[in-house]
UniProtKB/TrEMBL annotation:
EC number per UniProt: 2.4.1.-
Primary location recorded for the protein, binned into one broad class: Golgi
Protein name (database record): Polypeptide N-acetylgalactosaminyltransferase
Required cofactor(s): Mn(2+)
Biological processes, Gene Ontology terms: protein O-linked glycosylation
Organism of derivation: Sarcophilus harrisii
Keyword field contains Isomerase: no
Compartment(s): Golgi apparatus membrane
Entry GO CC: Golgi membrane
Ricin B lectin domain boundaries: 449-575
Classification lineage: Eukaryota, Metazoa, Chordata, Craniata, Vertebrata
Keywords, sorted A to Z: Disulfide bond, Glycoprotein, Glycosyltransferase, Golgi apparatus, Lectin, Manganese, Membrane, Metal-binding, Phosphoprotein, Signal-anchor, Transferase, Transmembrane, Transmembrane helix
Amino acid sequence: SETSFHVFISKKIDVLPINQTNRTLTGGSELTRVNIAIKNQAKTLNQIGEEIHLPEDLGMHPVLNLDVTLSPRNPKAPGQFGNPVVVPFGKEKEVKRRWKEGNFNVYLSDLIPLDRAIDDTRPSGCADQLVHNNLPTTSIIMCFVDEVWSTLLRSVHSVLNRSPPHLIKEILLVDDFSTKGYLKDQLDKYMSQFPKVRVLHLKERHGLIRARLAGAEIATGDVLTFLDSHVECNVGWLEPLLERVYLNKKKVACPVIEIINDKDLSYMTVDNFQRGIFVWPMNFSWKKIPPEIIKQNKIKETDVIRCPVMAGGLFSIDKKYFFELGTYDPGLEVWGGENMELSFKVWMCGGEIEIIPCSRVGHIFRKDNPYSFPENRIKTIERNLIRVAEVWLDEYKELFYGHGYHLLDQSLNVGNLTQQRELRKKLGCKSFKWYLENVFPDIEAPIMRASGVIINEALGKCISLENTTAVLEECDGGSKSQNFNYTWLKLIKQGDRCLGPVPVVGDLSLYPCDNRNKRLKWLHKLIGVLHPEQMDHLILEHWKQLRCLEANLSGKTLKATVCDSMNPYQKWKFEKYYVG
Ligand code: LR7
Ligand code: MN
């Protein structure tokens, strides 16, 4: 379009920042040739460092650095400028007593101004980046349950104080059936002084996922911006997020999440070069971009960072796109997993998740949820994750269950998944394998734990299948009947059948595989990974007695029998082990 600068770098489409002072576009580091359309005129950047001068009127302006807190009424007030606050002498008991109201230093939060100033922590260059004049408007959606009064208010004030008013369509505060009196009777009154703030009181506990959806349903802005209810938005935070969504409505833009310390309420910046990732069994984590990669690719502090998953709480998404994607799975309860679900959905169905370094928002990180879960906390989160795994992970759900082994055994009722699976089909989303290869290629995700022939220590012979009976033979890696896969769910597979003992007799045979059948599961401690020369038992844990796979002295047959830790006829090794 006339005013956007889509830059085509081979197949990737990205957007180059425009230098505002001399209005130039410069070819970046990894580009060889870049075609740009400016006001419908094609121009080409042929090499790194080459510049294109832009026309006078781009329909853009430098980010509005609005911050009404910059000359605070009371610069000496505790916590001003994001400084740490010291607990006054003699108040330690009160601090302790009030801590559990929010699982952070509630006493100090009440002490610091609701509109305190914080440092501008943006990397240099952010303040003069250009954004479009016609950015979409946004609805801010903040849901909360029993949030502390001063942090909730500080969150709202930080939005009002540091956002361009014309871009805020409304601020929706969704009260997820709080029990605290002040959130019922005082909040509406306090917020009535701000025409843009609306409070929605839910009639029953929805959990954060459905509470956000309740907000999204009534939102009237073009973009939805979700925030937690204990944040402080920093100067210039909003426009860079909306700019990304404006450039491409399938971009989901997240701010850099900075830290409001739970003990002294100080505002602390964080390392820019981090991606949001997950570790099995699907726990969110940050991963540093290695310095050599930063150097190699000349990644700048202001460069957008593409993330396999988002942290969850803070992001802007085009409203129409959010609904096209089918929002969140409304079957997710209370807390957890929804960030995985939305991230997989966005990437696999054609969108992108980005962290925008020029947008920064502080968040109080706490050790524990300060509110109650209607049902068991751990079970609730696990149930959510199982729903996500069952809909999005394809064959990789074995890794999920393999790392959270108990998840497979649970008699948890995860509810109906038909709708979610159909949605994925309808949207024509890509496979989880595609996601891993293209979005998260640095994850260690081998589908098998070990594979190839299975060698016996005493005999140096390998397990082979004659029809469906297991026997021993001279090893031959090329032989199909000697090749097995050892899966995350502890099955020893050949094709789609699994090795298991014949009841009572103990001979080995092939059975139809069943991920939940404990009687087919072999524990193998995989010391082969660390010491390739060592071998270990293959143990059936779930028979009346522990059973180990043993080669017969004759060197022909094998059986599952009483374990003997020293016996080399009971020690085995797979040809190849995978780390993951
Ligand atoms: O039942 C509930 N109803 C609610 O309205 C439970 C919670 N909530 C509200 C709650 O008041 C808060 O405003 O939902 C918001 C998030 O809950 P938190 O603050 O207890 O969550 P968190 O900050 O510990 O956890 C992160 O992961 C969650 C997983 O479901 C959500 O996605 C949170 O939004 C998310 N927070 C962030 O991404 C901030 C940075 C954390 C990191 C890394
Ligand atoms: Mn939070």
